[in-house]
TrEMBL record:
Involved in the biosynthesis of the chorismate, which leads to the biosynthesis of aromatic amino acids. Catalyzes the reversible NADPH linked reduction of 3-dehydroshikimate (DHSA) to yield shikimate (SA). Pfam families: Shikimate_DH, Shikimate_dh_N. The active site is at K69. It is an enzyme of class 1 (oxidoreductase). Belongs to the shikimate dehydrogenase family. Residues 124-196 form the Quinate/shikimate 5-dehydrogenase/glutamyl-tRNA reductase domain. One of its GO terms (biological process) is chorismate biosynthetic process. The keyword Ligase does not apply. It catalyses: shikimate + NADP(+) = 3-dehydroshikimate + NADPH + H(+). Shikimate binds at S18, K19, S20, T65, N90, D106, Y223, Q251. This is Shikimate dehydrogenase (NADP(+)). Residues 10-92 form the Shikimate dehydrogenase substrate binding N-terminal domain. The gene is aroE.
């Protein structure tokens, strides 16, 4: 008889800064599961062969991060509708008989974080203003539209990228010019920064937020620092704020539960662990 130790991990390049091993390690310990979650630095040219080898080595699945998210979807035997709609994968589960199913839990993580942290908040509450139109915005738009957001007001420094998302996601997405914050924020219920502005080492978030009002919910995908200048400006104007750390935690939940058969919880002590140096 052989004892099978469940294995999973995260593939990226670079991978040294990934906080996923710490998070999954916490869940494994907390739930008394004798598994391992291993960070792996993989070159793009090696991704396909690594994904062929891992299930033979006993891996149940892996997270994939930059720069592999699109290639991982392209190489999948099956993909969930949300991974297809987002055009990228972050959660791969190996299938019996070879190959893997690709899923994308980023939008789920975004929505679950808001639903968990902001009591009474719903995507249907009103128009959603989104700053930025990169990969993260794509996942967030998909989740918010699925959850019933009536309108997305999207603005991006490079307007063509926002227009590409509007074409992909349909008429509920309205593109505004970068800086048109009064029009974006007017009667918005939810305001989201998906740009890297305000992240440690990046330029400051400098758009005018004077049209923010109490009753709006503001959230940022940046969580270094936790209280970004964008969230501080929103709080000064009376908005409810939810920081971006929870999105990272929640996006990990579906993979953990699938691979390890666990019941991962997003708790205050997990947050504290993730913020520790
Ligand atoms: P992610 O997957 O995190 O969304 P990304 O695809 O590189 O990363 O997108 C980064 C986002 O931050 C984009 O919306 C980008 O705007 P552009 O499409 O114009 O590049 C935005 N961004 C980054 N630096 C910016 C800056 N200095 N000013 C305004 N927007 C910026």
């Amino acid at each position: 008889m052989s004892l099978r130790i469940p294995l999973a991990g995260v593939i990226g390049n670079p991978i040294g800064h990934s906080k996923s091993p710490r998070m999954h390690g916490h869940w494994l310990a907390r739930q008394g599961i004798a598994g391992h979650y291993i960070p792996m630095e993989v070159e793009p040219a090696d991704l396909a062969s690594v994904l062929e080898t891992l299930p033979r080595a006993g891996f149940a699945g892996v997270n994939v991060t930059i720069p592999h998210k699109e290639a991982a979807l392209a190489g999948a035997r099956r993909a969930t509708p949300r991974a297809r709609a987002i055009g990228a994968a972050n959660t791969l589960t190996f299938l019996p008989g070879g190959g893997y199913e690709a899923d994308n839990t980023d939008g789920y993580g975004f929505h679950a974080n808001l639903a968990g942290a902001a009591e009474g908040w719903q995507a249907q509450d009103g128009p959603v203003a989104v700053f930025g139109a990169g990969g993260a915005a794509r996942a967030i738009l998909h989740a918010m539209l699925e959850a019933g957001a009536p309108e997305i007001r999207l603005m991006n420094r490079t307007r063509a990228r926002a227009e590409g998302l509007a074409t992909a996601f349909g008429p509920r997405v309205r593109v505004l010019d970068w800086g048109e914050t009064d029009a974006a924020l007017k009667d918005a219920a939810t305001v989201v920064n998906t740009t890297s502005l305000g992240m440690a080492g990046q330029p400051a978030f400098d758009l005018d937020l004077s049209a923010m009002r109490p009753g709006m919910l503001a959230t940022d995908i940046v969580y270094t620092p936790l209280e970004t200048p964008f969230l501080q400006a929103a709080a000064r104007r009376g908005a409810q704020v939810v920081d971006g750390l929870g999105m990272l935690l929640w996006q990990g939940v579906p993979g953990f539960n699938r691979w390890f058969g666990g019941d991962a919880q997003v708790t205050a002590d997990l947050r504290a662990l993730m913020l520790a140096p």
